[in-house]
Records
---
Amino acid sequence: MATGQTVRELQDRIRSMQATKLDSRLIPTHPAIADLLPGGGLKQGATYSVEHSATLLMALLAGPSQAGSWCGVVGVPEFGVEAAEGFGIDLERLVLVPNPGDQWLAVTAAVADVMGVVVTRPPKRASDSSLARLTARLRQRGSVLLVLGPWPQSEAMLSLSESEWSGIGQGHGTLSARQVTVTVSTRLGGRPRSARLDLDFARSPADIARSQADMTQSPALADRPELRAVV
Amino acid sequence: MSDIVRTMVLWVPDWPITAAVRAHRLDPDAAIALIDKGQVFACSAEARIEGVKRGLRLREAQARCPDLVVKTYDPVIDARSFEVIVTAIEELMPGVQLLRPGMCAIRSRGPARFYGGEKPAALALVQLLDELGIPGSRVGVADGPFTAEQAARTTGRTRVRVVPEGESAEFLAPLPISLLELPPLVTLLRRLGVTTLADFAALPADDVLGRFGETGAHLHSLSSGADSRPVIARIPPEELDAQVAFEPPLDRVDQVTFGFRAAADRFVQALVGAQLVCTILRVELDTENGETSERSWLHPRSFTAADVVDRVRWQLQGSGEVDTGLTSGIVRVRVVPEAVDAIGNHEVGLFGAGPDERIHSGLSRVQSMLGHGGVLTAVVGGGRTLADRSQTVPWGDRAILTRPAAQPWPGRLPKPAPSTVFPAPRPVHVTDADGQEVRVDDRGAVSSAPARFSASGSGRESRSITAWAGPWPVDERWWDADAHRLSYRFQVVDASGIAWLLVLEDDGWSAEARYD
């Protein structure tokens, strides 16, 4: 155990010394998920791949949306708008491009130019060169790309498992609350990190975020000075 | 009586019908009715023969005349199509006052001199209307617009009636009092025993003023043939629309948009010259085989020249790509500002307008790739089904919510809402532990507990159900045979912990959404 710990610490040090780019700025997201992510949050210009879960996607989007980012959803015609609102995503700053067809890569790039967070689902594998162009564009614009499905150069892979519903029985009740395990694995290897997440829909998402921020004391959020627009 | 103006009034009977026939390209000989608030607002002669009349309820009108063509009454179409007529009349004789769509007044002195008499002038007007393809127009000439209007309404076969100067009172005398457009006064006068205009005119003017006030006195002078209202000629509005005709016709989207680019620049410059910006734009496209496509486009702020070209392109390409060919060549493109605003309200501020502008132009670029409806914003509205509740609006348009979200909507799904809503419900099979399909009887009871369901619809890849709830009946619009929808909703959780919203309808089970 102690050896494993040391090895991990050493790996972290090597990684931090090898980092070629400056510390990129973080975009706030759900605090419990942010803790699992490498760097403690969604990095601007990075790509994250999310495995088949719209819930996880919405949990990730809620934070940036509440912080004032515009969110674009490309190629996901089944995106549940009402659920998105329930998660605290501001619909006024949410733009949907349900059917980009063959032009999904161009559309994703165009949307990423102007939006802080972009969700896309590749209908097919794109060529490495076009992916590299998109990645460069994301870095330049500082947008975050969330991909539903696998992506070759993602910063981290997020998946959701061991979902347990409460409030529903055999022929009675309704779906009311859910506990899930969120697992984050990174490109650089290392052990996947996971956490148990409580999705209680009776409370407002802002409450959840606040209580979890208190609980976990995520440095990314706690250190952020409170800014207020002066008009 | 020198202040009374000899007036010519042109009246087109059933103008709303004529306008609707022209706008919707209906058969003019069909039985047509325009419906406003569930009642017949106007009907064509054919419909009138069948017994349809104004004020009838829609159902009753349809019962009297089963092949009635029903359209919603739109006052905008009325006014817009009469505008063309007024412009044509203005070319023939100046000084036209629009009284209402379908009726206008002209000072008759000038035309009478030109055509050598009031009757020839009136006949020239009728002939013009016939040439424009508006049959059945009538013209009345008399002292003042009111008398002239009544003269136009009482023309016989000649379609022109001239009431000689100073004979208005005799002409109006036998007409009923209900012609005065003030129902409370008319009712009161009838009760007082005054049934014709002559009876009303016979009352002393001072007493009428004392009893009925200014309005009453005005109507009194109308009914005695002393209509002192002048004909105020309208000032023809400035032409702000731009059009380009293509000869030979162009059949490629990019050619048309390129050809329209300069005209769009001129269009916006002309608006700027008039210190206006356009907020709603109408684009009209005429094709070689005589079809016209017309559409209004909204803009969140105001149209620039590039925006105008974009709208023309989107209307041309529909959902296709930029380089798709068109089915028939475009001969004419016309853009009309439908709503304008003072330019001062749309000046870009020094601060604060930056990011929004950037997002708008970025999304407009995506729209130019995918078409106007390719980029959507969403609004949560009211309703019971998921499809009703989430409404999408193309970027740049305003949301029109027919079902307000603030109402309680009993029967809607309890929170949380499903995160994945299938655009089209997917057929599934739901079976109980013995492999029998689960049904719901007329009393809303489940035949047996659902145990397995297959998400693919083919029966393979079946998932076992660990928890379920339902059935929740949704019985919508049971009073309307066409719109009636009875369904039972179930929430089920499968073994992998993913919950589904399943719906049972007459034609079987389907999965409407997933809580993944």
---
Amino acid sequence: MATILLIAEQAHGHLKKATLSALTAAQQLAQKGGGQIQAVVIGAGAAQSAQELAAYLPTVHAVEGGGFEHALAETHAAAAVEAAKKVGATDVVLAATAYGKDIAPRIAAKLAAGVASDILAVVSANQFKRAMWAGNAIATVEVTTPVKVVSVRATEFPAAQKSGSPGAVQQLGVTAPAPKTKFIEFNEVKSARPELTEASVVVSGGRGTKGDFKPIEALADVLNAAVGASRAVVDAGWQPNDLQVGQTGKVVAPKLYIAAGISGAIQHLAGMKGSKTIVAINKDAEAPIFQVADYGLVADLFKALPELTEEVKKLK
Amino acid sequence: MKILVTVKRVEDYESKIKVKPDNSWIVTEGVNYRANPFDEIAVEEALRVRDANAPSEVVAVSIGSGAAQAEIRSALAMGADRGILVKHDGFLDSDAVARLLQKVVAKEAPDLVLMGKQAVDVDDNVTGQLLAEYLGWGQATFASKKESLESPEEKAKKPGLRFGADKKTVQVAREVDGGLEVLEVQLPALITVDLRLNVPRYASLPNIMKAKKKPIEELAPAALGVDVSPKVKVVRVEAPPARTAGIKVPDVATLVKKLHEDAKVV
Ligand SMILES: Cc1cc2nc3c(=O)[nH]c(=O)nc-3n(C[C@H](O)[C@H](O)[C@H](O)COP(=O)(O)OP(=O)(O)OC[C@H]3O[C@@H](n4cnc5c(N)ncnc54)[C@H](O)[C@@H]3O)c2cc1C
Ligand SMILES: Nc1ncnc2c1ncn2[C@@H]1O[C@H](COP(=O)(O)O)[C@@H](O)[C@H]1O
């Protein structure tokens, strides 16, 4: 029977939420093409994360130890391929996060597999939908190789549900290849706010903020929201890189997305069009962002955001 | 040092992209073409690395139809030394591109291959990683730097890539989820660049003139011994689902009322 291998993503013993969306995509693939799903978790803390994932799947493999401590593409792709060979995987599925994007093609190359990246939908056992030209077109692609690698846009798939009976974790012994890459440091952007891709509300600011994110942050705080930004803001160094929403940044689909001082370039829309409710606050009534907004307010954000923050407070 | 940099000819992001009525591809008539924006950043970085490590050479490679000569010329006009066009008409998947590039790398033996992280037509974000694996090289994807694009370092056009004193390694800051990671990669290395690595220069008129005389070598997939039949085919292209514009609200009070009572999101 065909086996679909899910490559989980985790940090320090905690599973990343995007993995559960990738699992849903794997389940849809199993429904359409037949087969069972197994998973592998790689890196420091893998055994613990594997335990968490075993609530969803009968068999989860864990690869831990020396060479896998840091998420180096060379070693992690090698471990994923070892796991794929061991379970006889016909499909390898993972989330299209920075980690997934880094390793998926290397896994594909090792398995002589075609790679469909950042998919939006599973059409059939070998056809997938994906966005091209900044979301100006949706393509159906067909992977023609016997083994397929698929990376999944997490916002397009709901998180998988726990199964009734918890599964088993198996340690998988893999010798890490000597990598040509060495981890030096990680400059983490620490934030007490929810993670951008996981938050149910996102408040984003653009060049219209002129770099002053205080009104954005104040509103985010009362809404328990994540903060996002347009490319203009990140390029100027006003906010960290990983807050960029868009075609070439993060894709978000919260239940509420508030864009303030953002014009609504196609590259930005590509990252937030899937949000349930979109609010735009812009002082230019002609700004393209209003074309996708459910509620548009033509106003100065420095006046409107503090008012909005106060009104929301009153509701609570 | 020898640096190979890739430039893909893509639809200009300012052009309106429309899907063909028969859903086979997008309408290409009336669309402007240019080099992939990420590749311009890769070219810029290649030039900075070359100039900080003389004597060095920058070779710009494109894979595509004869028209892609134009994008190679624009890399040459920015300052690249020579070009290579692997000529092929029609669709190539990223895997075929990676295997063609593997042959070009074998022929040229560069110390560094610089590529964009993503081609803004197909938005794959896979070619660099595929190539790194085919070559058995280390990779640093999504290269960025700690300094902002407004910083004095950027204004002084300093390379964001930091080479070891012996030129055997390169340190790269990369944009990953949650922050910036710094990796050290042994040369030869493959690096894909992100938006914040640099601001690409414009070609000056004298350099555009000079570029006309720089050589562009043409190669063919068959001569390189690469079977380019796709592992991933595009079978259909359709317009994205349209989002209907909503309403304008007159003030914040109305907005909050709508969000609370109608949308039920606050
Ligand atoms: C290859 C490539 C990739 C890209 N990827 C991305 C991406 O991933 N994400 C992304 O966001 N962009 C991306 N871009 C950039 C994109 O094209 C736009 O340039 C960018 O989104 C503009 O940011 P902005 O809306 O903040 O700024 P602007 O377009 O300058 O808009 C600022 C807006 O603020 C309004 N404003 C000004 N002052 C006020 C005020 N006081 N109150 C209210 N409103 C005010 C103005 O009316 C204006 O509409 C990419 C571009 C390229 C070429
Ligand atoms: N046909 C091509 N010619 C030259 N470079 C290419 C080509 N296709 C992809 N690339 C390179 O690979 C990078 C990533 O592209 P992709 O993986 O297709 O999104 C691009 O930024 C280019 O540098």
---
Amino acid sequence: MAITRDEVAHLARLSRMSLSDAELDALAPQLDQILAAVARVTEVAAADIPPTSHAVPLTNVFRADVTRPSLSVDEALAAAPAAEDDRFRVPRILDPDE
Amino acid sequence: MTDAPADVVRFTAAETAAAIAAGELSAVEATQAALDRVAKVDDAVHAFLHVDAEGALTTAAGIDARRAAGERLGPLAGVPLALKDVLTAKGMPTTCGSRILQGWYPPYDATVTARLRAADVVILGKANMDEFAMGSSTENSAYGPTRNPWDLARIPGGSSGGSSAAVAAFEAPLAIGTDTGGSIRQPAAVTGLVGVKPTYGGVSRYGLVAFSSSLDQAGPLARTVTDAALLHAAIAGHDPMDSTSVDVPIPPVVEAAARREVLGMRIGVVRELSGEGYEPGVQARFDEAVALLAQLGAEIVEVSCPHFDYALPAYYLIAPSECSSNLARFDAMRFGLRAGDDGEAGAEEVMSRTREAGFGPEVKRRVILGTYALSSGYYDAYYGQAQKVRTLISRDFAAAFERVDVLVSPTTPTVAFPIGAKADDPIAMYLNDLCTIPANLAGVPAMSVPAGLSEGLPVGFQIMAPAFADDRLYQVGGTLEAALDARRGHPLLDAAPAL
């Protein structure tokens, strides 16, 4: 099963990651090789085997819903690429034409 | 205050701590000696991404003052340590070896970091690593590769290659690494160290920047089994801040490291982890170590774990899938790099430009691969099937541990390879993890302990134990280490070339 350059470009869009033409050219054949290698898992007869998401059995962990100390606004914003009025400043998230 | 002995950097962590506790050495002297060693050799080795000399000396001076005041100190008080740059520590940058986090100062300590501070360990700085812990050579660091102290033209393993190189180059007696598919054990193996991946859930992941959440685990790298045990005990234990942390007592690893006997233990040699692709020198050192354990009274049993053959492909579906999800947090909005924010581009465009500029080739490969494996139409065939294989691998372990106390194999199929040798061949690189991945998939603990040299380069011997029986690793590893050191007449690292 082959993965095409167009599919890699689509996956990059889904991943919110621009890729240059050179990167697409390099990645498509590599991913094709890797997928051919990992496809070996399909050789295992496992129809009736339950999946494992975590090696250790886990249950939901709850704590009391009480107010606790947290980061101050200044600490939370200290590493922000841009901040304004005690808030993260982000690029526009809506299209101006809509 | 007298000058510290010239060989203080060659002290083990246990020796350093004992000398400080006895007042024969100050924490400041031990720290300064380590910093001097870093200044001398790290231009060549490049184990560190950040050295916090001032912070380390301040911590050390505080320890000396508290000792002078008669206060009780931790078991590793004053011992210098290199912290892998994937764990947060206040006051130091955390980059994960990535451009996308260049210059990021985290606002909180990881639980591992907090426990190191509570144990009075002196954190020297942050150790280099493959970007976001994806790699087996530390060549994927955005800040340049780390070099193997045994041969500067070779890789120190990865992803915890800065951690392994720092300890093997005597820049620090201890380091913390993280292990998702072998990233503590493989670097330990190729640099002649002891490295342990604890049982999943045994060490808190709070403040460990996630790569593959169901597999990641922090653990110790050290020059001796006892040192590794002391560090393991210091960082392990339940943490309410990590919902996957398990509330069970810390296995008695320090006691086990001192036991030095394997009489009557049943040791299983995994049939699937040998044969084609294993270098003759690696296989020979492994076989000799098994024979030595048999001489010491262990019962050697050959064990088959048939699904281990599928561990590598399952891992390279599960880990990239979790990675593609985890790395979505690097969105250029709240912290880290923001690229292409020209006032015109929208948030989605800025996100895409930032991730293009901030991630290196291996991270991009894995994000794309994971996105593919999780997309509708492929999910069942790839990710779902890999999770089923994961169940079968856990069952192989469970069946094996009904017959034996521990399982053993070589840690890696080869010794350290030259820098650049596999850089353009992802699949060849992935094969480094062949022997180490099964333990991550099943969540069981595993150790690499030095088995000797092949053509002048270290070979690792892997021990795997049932979940939360981490102490068995230390018992077998400590016994093997003592027997090999006695036969050789000195610790393996004494054979490393001077830097």
---
Amino acid sequence: MEFLGYRRKDGLAGTRNYVGIISNGVCTSDAVNWIAREVAGCVPFTHRENCALVSPDKEVVTRTLINLGKNPNLACVLVVSAGCENPGIAPDTIASGIAESGKPVDVCTIHQPGGIRSAISRGMNTAQKMASDASRLKREPVPISLLRHGVECGGSTPLSGIVTNAAQGTALDFVIENGGSGGFSETPEVIGAEHIIAARAVNDEVKRKMLKVVRDYEKKLMASGHDFFGSNPDPQNITEGLSSLEEKSVGDIRKGGTKPLMEVLGYGEIPESKGLFFIDTPGHDLPSLTGLAAAGCNIITYSTECAVPYGFPFVPVIKITAKKDHYEKYFDILDYLVDIEKTITDVRSVGRELFDLMLEVASGRKTQNEIIGYTGACDLWTVVPMT
Amino acid sequence: MIEAIVLKPGDNIGVALVGLNAGAEVKIYGQEKWIEITEPVPYQHKFSVKRIDTGEEIIKDGVVIGKAIQDIEQGQHVHIHNMTGLRLKAKMQGG
């Protein structure tokens, strides 16, 4: 089986073909957005981190930005830097890291004689050339083994586990059965059900790592002294019928399908094996989506029963719901309505339908997010408290 | 139409796939089993398929999702008024 993708020099394939404009720190967010807005074919990735980063955030943010830049949906990357003498996240490190993938990378520095306008103008000219080069690439049939499927959920109800997550977990099974890879994340939303995932680990080391990331996350939350009931599960989760974090987790893990767990990744890491992986991320969907994109996911499905509107700048996000009224009302957010009874009686047929939609989107069909252009929100995960 | 589902054998709760009224005899999907519902159970919420004593584990999809903080009779609505999670929240309270 195949989809129509963009072949990259490192052997991966993109489902999209953008020029990525990536900021190395918050000081360049405006410049990044400015360039991306003015040059067709460019997408921005901004974040709030800056030069004050310390370990381990410094290493994790650096690795995440590099691996975002390596995502096969980006044909070329322009890294935008303030140009300080002591940058927290060195732009050259980011650029040379991304360049390992063989794609063209350049750096635009805004602290330059001539002012910000002039620096941005030079950045736009570089981006213009990159966009022109990227537009020469054509889609061609590529095997499904080059599909990397991220699964996400946001706005869970008791039916998310039984229906929408079961549907996307089955679609993920289809991807893996066809030689592809994929994974899920959101560590706190596995608490209470981690033993089910760990039991599917390919070996003891992966099993230990799975249990460790959950234990460490839970310890960290406990040490904060806050009561998270009302945050996770959140008020909407509770109103809809989820009574505990464990119950939410039982539904959450269904999105990970049924295949053996091959790898557990740290935030911003790229998997080495085919098959299923888990990424240690927060339950907050924005940094979680970034984790999936940094892992090289070129397509994402996202179950949401509260019609979460945002997508991701350069990875198509297919939004699925089991709520018919939402699907009709929020037609410019949601892409697929999951049939509740059909999923309960024949999950493989529903998973197959979603898988077929994924192949269409991977081959160029636009998601609602992409059509409306609601793809700007982005965030990274850091663990060191702000000073 | 599927009215209710019990996800794994051994679960002591079912999930309502339609809003259930008190007095309803509900058929569990895939089983030759009917449960009499004794109080309203909103759409997607849980009900007990057997008596659950205070302190007993609540099991959904084969996983412990919390424990009963009251005695729960068969057919009652199960939610935060009569059960609590054991992870994160309960630990905070020293439970």
